[in-house]
Amino acid sequence: MKRGPTGRYELTTTVGEAVRAFVPNPLPPQPPLDLSGARQRLLEQALLACGRLDGVSALLPDPDLFLYAYVRREAVLSSQIEGTQSSLSDLLLFELEEAPGVPFDDVVEVSNYVSALEHGLSRLREGFPLSSRLLREVHAKLLARGRGVKKSPGEFRRSQNWIGGTRPGNAQFVPPPPAVLEDCMAALERFIHDEATPLPDLVKAAAAHVQFETLHPFLDGNGRVGRLLIALILHEAQVLRQPLLYLSLYFKQHRGEYYRLLDAVRHDGDWEAWLDFFLEGVAQTARGAVDTAHRLLALFREDAERIQTLGRSAANTLRIFDALRARLVANINDLAMRTGVSYPTSAKTVESLATLGIVRELTGRRRDRVFAYDRYLAILNEGTEPL
Question: Do 255 and 319 share a domain, yes or no?
């Protein structure tokens, strides 16, 4: 449905140029969203896929281990959309205090994203409400180190920004002036918690994401915080018991359509086209996560069975194997410390795992070598190739 522009323009001046900044109307959209017919079926399919993901996550030996890896995969993907070249291996090496194979600032940005997401989820579990204050805290974590430290971490912007173009005058889009940001963000917060407007949680997350991206309230990191907002809304609403639904891969794969539909909401009021895209993304992403979980369960079972054939050394090898399932990149010192297996025995055990083709050495060094649970890492790496 094309409602026309979903906001008003305000004339403002920045960098010596007069520009028309877009101020969106408060949510929910008017007239109300059309959730009938094919769109209702899309919503039902997305919810069914989320339910299956919730069910399969309960089958995993330790859902927290899967969450540990999935959060880091999401951090890599969301940061890649913003131009970083870091891979999942780079991030895991960085967390192990090993030198990654990309510029330091790239992997720091990805590591910051992990901290920001974990902070937001932790605060929600404590009972802290999803609010402007929480988003500022998340933003402060996101820009705590690296390139963003001078971009006012944790603070809404006090100057005009723009998206696309070399200057404000030829920008693709100019968000609201800073003077109206506090009111706009307060209105968004009210919408997220408005129980008088009975919108399904997935629909609410879809609308809130567009509104946040339109407001672009920070000097830097808006895209990443906007994607985090989806995960935080769905977690607070308990759509999933484990926060395993992240849309960055879908947005990365369809980024042209993603940006086109955001513009269509602002200029034409076509919320329904955006909602169809979003719900299809939720369904695809949830199905993909279910498939990944099943593949990992099969992989863990197959590899454990192969280790059982090792005879007397099988018990210690399984302990090292379990440690690699928990942290799929490690050195011998790390494995020995986490398992209580002596360093010499850990080294022999890792060699056995390498002979079985379960682990692979990453550095090519003769000393201080680093090993990865190879097929586990390969599954998580699918779709994470830098743009």
Answer: no
Q: pLDDT tens-digit profile of 70-95?
A: 899 999 999 999 888 888 988 998 98
190 and 261, same domain (yes or no): yes
Distances (CA, A) of 172 to 19, 20, 69: 11, 11, 36
State the CB neighbour count (10 A cutoff) for residue 344: 10
Place of tokens 């992403």: 285
First to last CA, the chain: 33
Q: Which H, E and C letters describe 259-323, residue by residue?
A: HHHHHHHHHHCCHHHHHHHHHHHHHHHHHHHHHHHHHHHHHHHHHHHHHHHHHHHHHHHHHHHHH
96/75 Cα distance (integer angstroms): 16
Burial class (CB in 10 A: 0-12, 13-18, 19+), 115: middle
Q: pLDDT digits over 161-181, tens only?
A: 999 888 888 899 999 999 999
The residues with which 359 forms a beta bridge, in sequence order, are 373
Would you give the distance in Å from CA 258 to the centre of its chain? Answer: 16
Last residue of a domain, one of 268, 292, 316: 292
Identify the H or E element spanning 207.
helix 201-215
Residue 139 has which token pair? 């933003």
